[in-house]
């Protein structure tokens, strides 16, 4: 084969090679777009299925925060005896039981939100313990002291509930 024949062969193959490279590029681009579209649709379907579960978790934690709010808690949980220590322990045990019942909801919410809810629970327990250190001698008097001490202060539950509402708003 002469130099002229090689040049002629190269001239014939060049358009075929260019066409092949362009076809490969477009095929690869199309494949990536389809993969991205499938991934998007799968993500969209999973979000559509997960969103009601997440909202239900936020609803349950909002209910938890409402139930451990001091005024609600003290009205709902009456003393079983006149011993103030028993009543203090009953209130704390009620909060802990409510929390334990909703413990699994943490997987559906952000770490920040969950930590704020835990902090609200701890602050509420601290408020009850602080009121329990007073000189009162009966459970009914402790009940009044708890309500009196928490009237002027913002409720930890209310603060946490406003954060939960904000986070739910961010989901949309």
Account of the protein in words:
The protein is mainly alpha-helical. The protein has one domain. It contains six helices and no strands. Helix 3 runs antiparallel to helix 4, helix 3 (84-101) crosses helix 5 (139-151) and helix 4 packs across helix 5. The longest helix has 66 residues, at 3-68. The protein is rod-shaped, with a radius of gyration of 32 Å.
Essential attributes:
mainly alpha; 172 residues; 83% helix
| Share of β-strand residues | under 5%
Helix content: over 70%
- Rg, Å, rounded: 32 Å
* End-to-end distance: 71 Å
Q: What best-fitting shape do the alpha-carbon axes yield?
A: rod-shaped
Q: Unreliable stretches, pLDDT < 50, 5 or more residues?
A: none
Structural class: mainly alpha
Give the biggest beta sheet. none
What is the quaternary state of this protein?
single chain
Q: Quick one: how many beta strands?
A: 0
Total of domains: 1
Query: What integer is the average pLDDT?
Result: 88
Order of helices and strands: HHHHHH
SS element count, helices: 6
Write the layout of secondary structure elements.
Elements: H1 3-68, H2 70-76, H3 84-101, H4 111-132, H5 139-151, H6 156-171
Summarize the structure.
With 172 residues, this protein is mostly helical.
């Amino acid at each position: 084969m002469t130099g002229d024949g090689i040049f002629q062969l190269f001239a014939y193959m060049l358009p075929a090679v260019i066409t092949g490279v362009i076809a490969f590029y477009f095929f690869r681009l199309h494949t990536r777009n389809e993969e991205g579209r499938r991934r998007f649709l799968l993500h969209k379907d999973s979000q559509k299925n997960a969103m009601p579960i997440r909202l239900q978790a936020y609803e349950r934690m909002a209910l938890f925060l409402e139930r451990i709010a001091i005024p609600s808690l003290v009205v709902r949980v009456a003393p079983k005896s006149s011993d103030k220590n028993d009543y203090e322990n009953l209130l704390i045990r009620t909060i802990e039981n409510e929390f334990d019942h909703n413990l699994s909801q943490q997987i559906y919410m952000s770490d920040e939100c969950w930590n704020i809810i835990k902090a609200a629970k701890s602050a509420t327990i601290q408020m009850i313990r602080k009121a329990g250190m007073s000189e009162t001698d009966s459970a009914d008097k402790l009940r009044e002291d708890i309500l009196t001490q928490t009237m002027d202060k913002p409720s930890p539950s209310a603060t946490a509930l406003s954060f939960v509402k904000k986070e739910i708003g961010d989901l949309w």
